[in-house]
Amino acid sequence: MILQYIKDLSENLNNAFNAQGIIRVLEEFFSPCEVESIDIYVFDETTSTLRDFARSWMGIDECLEKNKSKEIYQIFDKLKSKKYIKNKNTLYYPLLKQSKPIGIIIFNGSSFDTILEFMDYAAFSISLKIQNVILSEKMQKNIDFHDAMKNIAKTIETQYEITYIIPIIGEMIDKFISDHLIYIFLKKDNTENLELFWPGACKDKKIFELIKCLNNNSDYILTPDKKIGIFPLVSENTLLGCIVTKSTDNILSEKEIEYLEQLTTQAATTINRANVYAEILQHATLDALTGFYNRHQLEERIKQEAASAKRQNRSLCAIMTDIDFFKHVNDTYGHAVGDLVLKTVSHLIKSQLREYDIAGRYGGEEFAILLPDTNIDDAKMVAERLRKAVEKKKIDISKINSEAPEKIISVTISLGVYQYELENSESDLLKNADKALYKAKETGRNRAVVYEKI
């Protein structure tokens, strides 16, 4: 009878793929044995701490009172020579790997005779399953690391704006080192001062003091408690900035430090190439990804068209548009798919315009369009034509991301339309079109809205 129960337990454990699943299986299996709760702690050799198996980012010092965590450490040490330890309400049973304790399973209840009888047969299966889950998580972390490295390297292939690149790098590292806050500092203009670039705020004064110690030859800086790490971004012997990790609870392991060193090296190369590329493109005219005018050249064309409209007393309209929920596309399918979407939308826009209309990539997923000799009614018709063309387009992403849940996706755009008033400044052209775009997004997206004076 017991052997049948153990067989059932093994089958259920085989269907559990993470820590929470294993604990649920064990709680259900031992529920007839008057078990009130089950806790599992696994010994982490890199930090020499027992960590909560269900919440691997937490050591027992963070989740238990000091006296209780100290008691469990003492019991864990005793289990090296004992089969189990029990008191009135608690049973401590070791998790073994080749006869060496690698963790501890704690049963809280009132009677342990039946549990001990089961554990004589089940202990090996439980320990093995826990080891397999831990190993799988480590392997997944390695995979995530290499994916992050590849994605950072790919980012520069089609993007050159630091304001676009840095959040991507930050989000990649933040996802990978998920139990730490991530900050990215960059040099301000041509000075030696480092300023916070991403995210929007950092209130830890200690971090600002630590980054002052960085120079072109700096190694990473780790605080004595190993909860703050400063990793310099150095490329071609030049300090570009730094990536900072901070945790109030967890230390950086040696493996995480190794990963972060490699990630910052790749990130520094990417940022340096972006800086060089951006400098080159300041003197170019076209955006590398879409083939539209880049922002610098677009601003030049705005000056020319506004001056021409005033001089010849002719109408001029502008459309500002961006892709709805574009961040969701990047987050769900990856930035390579995001680039495909940008290319597709820009191609659709170009196909709907006249030869002498002007289209530019204003930044990220935002586009600006100038329509010379066009009144507001005709401009609204153009905007609607663009909106419908994008809405109907089916984008095949199967070759870009074969693992995506969908092979075909669709996107929509929102548009703001404005007719230039000749007595106004040329800066009002896109500013007012952008206000109309904001109204379109605020009122539901996938629509074109004409600017109205308040």
Describe, in plain words, how this protein is organized in 3D:
It is a single chain. The protein is built from 13 helices and 17 strands. The model has no long low-confidence stretch (mean pLDDT 84). Helix 5 packs parallel to helix 8 and helix 10 crosses helix 11. The protein folds into 3 domains: 136 residues, GAF domain (Beta-Lactamase), CATH 3.30.450.40; 123 residues, GAF domain (Beta-Lactamase), CATH 3.30.450.40; 156 residues, 2-Layer Sandwich (Alpha-Beta Plaits). The chain has 454 residues and is of the alpha+beta class. Strand 8 and strand 9 form a beta hairpin.
CATH topology of the largest domain: Alpha-Beta Plaits
Rough outline: elongated
Give the class-level CATH name of the largest domain: Alpha Beta
Number of helices: 13
Write the CATH architecture name of the largest domain: 2-Layer Sandwich
User: How many strands in all?
Assistant: 17
Main β-sheet, spatial strand arrangement: 2-1-5-4-3
**Helix/strand class:** alpha+beta
Rg over C-alpha atoms, rounded to the nearest angstrom: 30 Å
Determine the strand fraction and express it as a percent band. Answer: 15-25%
Average pLDDT, all residues: 84
Distance between the termini: 80 Å
N-to-C SSE series?
Answer: HHEEHHEEEHHEEHEEEHHEHHEEHEEEHE
Unreliable stretches (pLDDT < 50, length at least 5) are none
Largest β-sheet summary: 5 strands, antiparallel
Q: Helical amount among residues, as a percent range?
A: 40-55%
CATH superfamily of the largest domain: Reverse transcriptase/Diguanylate cyclase domain
